[in-house]
Every structure is written in structure tokens, then in C-alpha cells.
Design a protein that fits this description.
Keywords: Leucine-rich repeat, Repeat. InterPro entries: Cu_amine_oxidase-like_N, Leu-rich_rpt, LRR_dom_sf, Mao_N_sf, SDS22/Internalin_LRR. The protein is of the alpha+beta class. The protein folds into four domains: about 160 residues, Ribonuclease Inhibitor (Leucine-rich repeat, LRR (right-handed beta-alpha superhelix), Alpha-Beta Horseshoe); about 110 residues, Copper Amine Oxidase, Chain A, domain 1 (2-Layer Sandwich), CATH 3.30.457; about 140 residues, Mog1/PsbP, alpha/beta/alpha sandwich (Protein Transport Mog1p, Chain A, 3-Layer(aba) Sandwich); about 190 residues, no CATH class. Helices cover about 20% and strands about 30% of the residues. Strands 1-2-3-4-5-6-7-8 form an eight-stranded parallel sheet, covered by helices on one side. Strands 24-25-26-30-29-28-27 form a seven-stranded antiparallel sheet, with helices on both faces. It has a five-stranded antiparallel sheet with strand order 13-14-15-16-17, with helices on one face. The chain starts with 10 loop residues before the first helix and ends in a 7-residue tail after the last helix.
């Protein structure tokens, strides 16, 4: 959409914008009003004089955002944008990026020429391109968990000794360090991923007669082998359950599970390390080995059952199908690629669709059919197919022209689950009698709707009488470590205490499942343990001058088991609607977090940043949200896992 001097700039006009790039010499100082451009996907505002970006916080469709060359100190207003993939915010005045841990869709981050000292908040993101040059960063250890990192730009002058050494390992393991192209005269651009996890090498891969050889020890250890090296014969013995490999340096004669095996290229010693042919080792370990030329990556992937991120389905696919990050603006759950083909899934809750008068699988298929037909698909056909693992199913096939002008064949299979309508979709240029189509049909036979945590809880506890369910939960959590103030009570006195409280549940009893099973009933017991639990309504009347965040952090400190002890907490608001800045001291260091403004509601997403600050203690804040209320406690990783497995608590994924 192009705007000229005669176009009125009102809310209606702003709502129509998809992209915006300002022209003219006059510098922009404020982005106030852009909050109405809520359909923007691309926003370019480089080299302006912007200081406050809080009006951009609700531009939830943004995919690309350029804010480089401004005067921004607080970048946290954009930290909750759910589809943001590319962020250019270099040459500003940003010191802290703790809130960036929330940008889970981010793939490209250019944040050079700022005042950032730590990139730890980026450790769990799927970033591929990262420019942190011209920042006072000393530690790069967080990059070791960035499995998708392909390019890194960083200054070495401030780096500590370990990080300087790590740069060399990154370069040898497929990360282009301080170079725009991954291509190289050596093989330093080759990355090796085992089921999406990167293998870190001390030496770059070597190419011999068309065969890639890699350092043997990191590869075998990542694959779970026990290794024995015989220095006299220069022989490797590697073994794990079901697989035994013998290889000898400079000999093409190896063995697999006791049977002779002739290698195309013999293992070699290069720069003092033994290198082995990766394809042989991968395939001998029952992994499919594939090469991606566009990003110079060797993938080793087994046949595996993939669970969707929303934990609703499982689907088994062979190792040719590589898990990829779906475009953030889509609703795809599982997303895989095999060359030019893709298999992906969606799920739509029935209780939501029924409001649109979509009650049956036929209703759902008809709605999708109309949507596809409106996109001018050709050859559109719909058929009923046999049930898939007891679930009613239908199928739709058609072809459609992509944005690149290529015609793609599409097969969609619709499945009615207990709670959702699912789609499993295959796309490709030519699917007729293809291997991709065969893989698709095979995977459909493995389709499984995952039992929800609430259903598992009901199966285990739903048959108990209400009073028995209450007592069982109270006793369990006492043994777990809650209710420490009651540890002097005898078992009978402890039961009597909770029975007395239970008898007061006259108007509402969460343990009574005669009409409705409440999977969170036991949380209402735990809220009595004020030393370990914070259970509040999120509508806390958060406002300027109320110091709600100060009080909340003090309350969280009380239940933190010593892991989180902030002092000198301050809460500053620049206006009645933010931005909000919280500062405090923790273990002798000043910390800054920037909660989002949600009206009267508390931003509990700051717990993700706090968890990063306290990860060295072995404890983490955990939360379960029940409608508008939230239950918060502090647990070790093994304690959290135990409650997930034994009590089926649906913890918030911070």
C-alpha cells in the first residue's frame, strides 16, 4: 500500500498497512499511533530518532522489524511479538536483552553497536544469524546450545580465554564466524546435526574422494557409543546396544556387528585426530544420513515418533524427513521437509469451532474446501477414506500455484479426534507414486491423538470419593516436601486438619467430580503452604504508583527456597501505560527487567528472565495457570518432572 500526501492517516488507513517504510529527510521521533497498524508484517524504521517503542508492542503480525540507528534503551516492548523472525536493532543504546528469551520465533538478530554484556537469554532460541559485534561481551558459552546457528559476528577483543577457543570450535563445527558466506576453501562450513542437536568438533570435517570424514570421538560419543582405542593397531572399537563397529586407520576393511564391511574411504589421522566416514557410522547406527547443500549441513536422523509442540498428537516419520521451524505466522505444529516435499500438521479445538457452527468432520472439511476453492486451486477433490486408528477421516487433493510461480500438489487428510479436528498435509511438486507419498501414507498409519494431562489425571484420581481424593493429595504433597510447618503433626492430626478444612467446602468442592472433574483441585490445597506457594489472581490492579511488581518479587523471594533473594527493588513507570522498568540487586549484581503493560494484569513472563538469573542454584520457578489465576512454586528439575509424571500438572512453558 502506497501513501501520498493526500491520503488521510487514520485508524482505518493504518489497519490496512502490511508494510511500512518511511520516506523523506525529516527524522521520526515517535511511533505513537502505529499501534493501530496491527496488520503490519514488515516495518522499516532505521536511522531515525526513536527512543520509545512501546506503541509497537501489540503489532502481533510483525515478521520483520528494522530499528537500527535509533536511540532505543529499552527493547522489551517488542519481546512478546509472537511471529517476529528478523530483528535489526543495531546501533542503539541497549544494555540488557533478558526479555529477548521470549522471542521464541526469532531466526535473525542483528544487535551490534549496543552496550550488551550478556547473550545468555538467547541460549534457547532458534537463531541462525547473530550479529553481536561492537558490544562488551566476554562470554560466548550460550552459543553452544544454539543448534541452528549458522553465522556469528563478534569482536574477539573482550572475549575471555574460553570464548576465544570456542570461536575456533564453532568455526570447525559449521558456524560461519565473522564471514557472510558459509562457503569456504576448507570444510569449516560443514555442520553435523544428530536429530537437530549439533555435534561439536575440535577439527573441521575433511572431504576425501566425495566422502565426508569427521573427528571420530565427538561423533561416536554423541551417538551414545562406548569407545575403545587400541594405539598399537590404531583400531577403534565402538559399541552400544544392538551395534558394534570396528574400524582401523588407513584400512578400508571394517566390521559391523561382527560381519566384514568394506568402506569406500578408510579412516585417517588428520592433525593428530582420527577421522571416520560419517555416512557409514550414521547408517550403521540406524540413522538416515542426508546432506543439505543450502546450509552445508549433514543430518543424522532415525525413524522416530514426533510429538507436536502442543502435545496433542504423535506421528512417526523416517529419518529422511527433517524437522524444520515452520513460518511463525502459520498454525503448523509438526513441520518436516524432505527435499522439495513437506509434511506438516494442524490442530483446531472443537469447542472453538462449534461456535462457528462446525460440529462434524464433514462441516470442517467443507469449510476448508471453501477456503481452498477461494484460492483458485485446481483439480480439487474430496473423498472419504477408512478410519485412521479408529478416528473418522476424509481426504482432499488439489494443486495450487505458489508465490514462486511453481505449481504444488497438495494432499490433506482430515481426522476427527476427541478434542480437536486435525489435518496432516503433504505438499510437493509431483506426488504421483512418489516416495514422499508412500512415506506420507505410512506415517498416517501411526497417527495418534495424545491423551491430555487432564484425562490422565481423571483416569488416576477420578474414581476416588471426594474426601479420599483430598486426603490422598494432602498426604502426597506432605511426603513430597510441602507443608513443612505441619511436620510435627502426627499422621492423624495432619489428616484431621485437612478434613476440618474440607468440611467447610459447602458451596464449592473442587474434589467432587460427579458433575465436572477439576484436574487442578489439589492446587487449592497447596495454596495454604505460603512458604512454598504463591497462588493469585493475575488481575492485581497493576498500575503506576502501586508497586505491585515490588511486592510480587518480594513474595516470590519468600517462596524461592533461597534461590532468588533480590534487594533494593525499584519499580519505575515512564507513563501510566508504561514502559515499566524493574531494577534490583541479586548476588551483588544489578539486574533489570521490563514487564509488559497488560492493564491491571501482572506480566508473569518475567519469570523466564528470573529463571535464567537463578539457573546456577539448581532451582527454577514453575507455574500452572488456571483460568485467570496462577500457581507458582520453586522446584528442582527432577521435582518438576516427578509432579508432571505423577500428578499430571500442566506447567507453563516459560
Amino acid at each position: 500500500m502506497k501513501l501520498d500526501a493526500t491520503t488521510p492517516i487514520d485508524e482505518t488507513t493504518l489497519a490496512k498497512l502490511k508494510s511500512l517504510y518511511p520516506k523523506g529527510k525529516e527524522k521520526i521521533k515517535s511511533v505513537k499511533g502505529l499501534n493501530y497498524a496491527y496488520n503490519l508484517t514488515h516495518l522499516y524504521l532505521p536511522n531515525q530518532e526513536i527512543t520509545d517503542i512501546s506503541p509497537l508492542s501489540n503489532l502481533y503480525q510483525l515478521d520483520f522489524l528494522a530499528l537500527d540507528g535509533n536511540q532505543i534503551r529499552n527493547a522489551c516492548p517488542i519481546a512478546n511479538l509472537p511471529y517476529l523472525r528478523q530483528l535489526l536493532i543495531s546501533n542503539n543504546q541497549i544494555e540488557d536483552i533478558g526479555c529477548f528469551s521470549r522471542l521464541t520465533t526469532l531466526t535473525d538478530l542483528l544487535i551490534s553497536k549496543n552496550k550488551i554484556q550478556s547473550i545468555a537469554p538467547l541460549a534457547k532460541l532458534n537463531i541462525g544469524w547473530l550479529d553481536i559485534s561492537n558490544n562488551p561481551i566476554t562470554d560466548l558459552s550460550s552459543t553452544k546450545s544454539m543448534n541452528y546457528l549458522s553465522h556469528l559476528f563478534v569482536d574477539q577483543t573482550a572475549l575471555n580465554e574460553n570464548s576465544v577457543a570456542l570461536l575456533q570450535q564453532l568455526d570447525r563445527s559449521g558456524v560461519g564466524v565473522n564471514r557472510a558466506s558459509a562457503a569456504s576453501s576448507t570444510n569449516s562450513g560443514i555442520a553435523v546435526l544428530i536429530d537437530t542437536e549439533r555435534v561439536w568438533f575440535d577439527h573441521a570435517a575433511s572431504l576425501e574422494a566425495g566422502t565426508t570424514l569427521v573427528q571420530f570421538r565427538p561423533l561416536f560419543e554423541k551417538l551414545g557409543f562406548t569407545i575403545q582405542w587400541d594405539d598399537a593397531t590404531r583400531t577403534i572399537q565402538a559399541e552400544k546396544q544392538g551395534t558394534r563397529i570396528t574400524l582401523q586407520v588407513d584400512s578400508p576393511n571394517g566390521s559391523l556387528n561382527g560381519q566384514p564391511y568394506e568402506l569406500t574411504v578408510a579412516p585417517k589421522i588428520i592433525e593428530g585426530s582420527v577421522f571416520v566416514p560419517i555416512r557409514f557410522v550414521g547408517e550403521a547406527s540406524n540413522y538416515v544420513v542426508t546432506w543439505e547443500s543450502k546450509n552445508k549441513t549433514i543430518n543424522l536422523v532415525p525413524e522416530r515418533a514426533i510429538e507436536s509442540p502442543d502435545h496433542k498428537i504423535k506421528l512417526t516419520l523416517n529419518g529422511k524427513w527433517l524437522r524444520k521451524i515452520a513460518q511463525a505466522s502459520t498454525d503448523y505444529q509438526i513441520y518436516t521437509e524432505n527435499g522439495n516435499n513437506a509434511i506438516f500438521t494442524t490442530a483446531e479445538p472443537k469447542d472453538y469451532l462449534v461456535k462457528k457452527d462446525i460440529k462434524t468432520l464433514q462441516d470442517y472439511t467443507t469449510a476448508i474446501y471453501k477456503m481452498i476453492d477461494d484460492q483458485k486451486a485446481s483439480g480439487l477433490s474430496e473423498t472419504k477414506i477408512p478410519p485412521i486408528n479408529g478416528m473418522e477421516a476424509r481426504r482432499m487433493s488439489y494443486s495450487i500455484k505458489g508465490t514462486n510461480g511453481i505449481n504444488y500438489a497438495v494432499i490433506q487428510t482430515f481426522i476427527e479426534g476427541k478434542h480437536d479436528f486435525f489435518r496432516v498435509i503433504l505438499t510437493g511438486v509431483d506426488l504421483t507414486n512418489s516416495e514422499a507419498a508412500k512415506d506420507y501414507e505410512k506415517s498416517l498409519r501411526t497417527f495418534k491423538e495424545v491423551t491430555t494431562l487432564a484425562e490422565q489425571s481423571q483416569a488416576k484420581f477420578g474414581a476416588l470419593k471426594p474426601v479420599d481424593r483430598m486426603l490422598e493429595a494432602a498426604r502426597y504433597y506432605r511426603n513430597f516436601g510441602f507443608f513443612e510447618k505441619d511436620r510435627a503433626l502426627s499422621s492423624q492430626d495432619f489428616d484431621n486438619k485437612f478434613l476440618a478444612q474440607y468440611n467447610k467446602l459447602t458451596t464449592w468442592n473442587p474434589f467432587d467430580s460427579s458433575k465436572y472433574y477439576d484436574p487442578y483441585a489439589e492446587l487449592y490445597l497447596l495454596e495454604q503452604d505460603l512458604d512454598h506457594v504463591w497462588f493469585e489472581d493475575l488481575e492485581l490492579v497493576v498500575a503506576r504508583g502501586k508497586n505491585v511488581y515490588v511486592d510480587t518479587l518480594q513474595a516470590w523471594s519468600w517462596i524461592s527456597r533461597g534461590a532468588f533473594r533480590p534487594t533494593a527493588i525499584t519499580e519505575t513507570w515512564e507513563s501510566d501505560k508504561g514502559p515499566v522498568t524493574i531494577t534490583f540487586n541479586l548476588n551483588g549484581q544489578k539486574k533489570v527487567i521490563h514487564p509488559q503493560y497488560y492493564g491491571d494484569y501482572l506480566d508473569v513472563n518475567i519469570l523466564k528472565e528470573i529463571n535464567e538469573m537463578i539457573k546456577g542454584t539448581g532451582y527454577q520457578f514453575v507455574a500452572v495457570q488456571v483460568d485467570q489465576e496462577i500457581f507458582i512454586s520453586v522446584l528442582k528439575a527432577e521435582e518438576k518432572l516427578k509432579l508432571q509424571q505423577e500428578r499430571y500438572l500442566d506447567f507453563v512453558d516459560f
